[in-house]
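For the sake of transparency, this paper describes our internal protein records without simplification. An entry from our holdings is shown next, in its original layout:
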Amino acid sequence: MKNIPFLDNWLKRRDLARGTAVFGPGAGGDSETEGLAELLAECELLRVRAGDAGLELDDSPASLEALDQLTPRWRDDPEELPWLGNDAGLYLGSVIVRTVPGAVWHLWPSGQPVVRLASGREINVVEFGLDWAVNGAPELSQVYAEVSEL
């Protein structure tokens, strides 16, 4: 696809298609919740890019710190950037769900996956992942630290 400056600017202003949406029957049973968690934890592109850098993502808080230390080569590819940011947010959410007591995946009516903490607070992890991929801040490990203290 050709680089069309006015179109790039228009898309940025419209803030189109930020993240993942999940749609399904929505019965909400335990097996469905587990299936959703597995689906959202795939983060294939992020895992491949991390692997290319010699980092194996093990779904631990330490892996978030390691991700924060990677050289952000993905910023050189504007087409890959939103996909990688989306994966980073889903990976952050997966680490939170697996390690923070009471944290679960929840779907907004729009299909947007968020992490719901035991307190009821909802964290839009995909938004944090996109900000991390584009700007490098906030760091994924910082978001995790703040969430794990709530």
Q: What stands out?
A: Strands lie at 104-107, 113-116, 122-123.
